[in-house]
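Render this sequence as a predicted structure.
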Amino acid sequence: MPEAVEVHGTCEPQFDAVSATLADHLATGADLGASVAVFVHGEPVVDIWGGWADPERTRPWERDTITNVWSTTKTMTFLVALMLHDRGELDFHAPVAAYWPEFAQNGKEDVEVRHVMGHTAGLSGWDEPLRAEDLADWEKCTSLLAAQAPWWEPGSASGYHAVTQGYLIGEIVRRVTGESIGTWFAREVAKPLEADFYIGLPASEDDRVSNVVPPPPIDLSALEGQVSDVMVKTFMNPPIDATMAHHEWWRRAEIPAANGQGNARSVAAVQSVVACRGRSGGVRLLSPEGTDPIFEVQADGVDKVLGLSQRIGMGYGLSNPPEMPIGPNACYWGGYGGSLIVMDQDAELAVCYVMNRMESGVVGDLRGATILATTLAALEG
């Protein structure tokens, strides 16, 4: 029997099995350090954490520990876009070039904002070779995408815009608001919700960060015949290396598809705005109709980058059994290595799992799925 590991925080008795699941993950080594949050009707019913913030097990994972959540960051960019749409400042069906005129190059005049939101813009990577540190150069990353031709016909299929989506949405936001997406998010979302989440981490928060523990590297050469050219171009320029998140240049930059720093409580608090149709914790950020665009299907089929069936709405992933067997009014996204956030509007439920020990999955893994399944069983029970 593995040695029991203490889980800290608060958990309503109905959800004791969720706490037990996290404790089991920590005891068996499936997790090193992790946090789990469940919000119902915009309020926390589970807010727990445990384990260690470092591989040497010298720093406990604390209440305010934060870590790089990778593509779970994308859900923050989606919410920013939804808020601007709700305010009448952004039209998802307008051409990107209406806000960003330089984007209308190389056949992209008719690419719409919704194509960027739904991974169907044909810009899942860069043509020009980039160094990892170039990801901190906003102007370079966005100007190259503006000048580039799509890799496939925009709107015809999704191809996971693993890193580029953040720059594309972020530049649209910058053109609409005059501010970087990280700055706008901090003031308009994180501050009113008192959410401990950052797109571009201030140096003052460094001592709370738990560096991610990278997964085994993916050897694309060993997958010959199983990967597409567009997959290789997407993930290998620059090569996605989890240790990038350990560096100061990564933390300080705004890389809105991949470098958000937070924990389960902060992610769930923000995304409860989606679960509760515009509000969370008594704070309303969207009109009751403001989340409706999420469920406008933008792609439904095999993704050109992931090689998996994906059903994507306005940013968020939608119910797509068996990959994500959730309800018709639910949506989700996950991050490289395992983090996961799921929202169900029928139950006004948000479930989030954030950890430091990464698995190989690009958009979540079984640990988060187990937390979700345990939560749903507790609700039904």
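Summary. The chain has ten helices and 14 strands. The longest strand covers residues 43-51.
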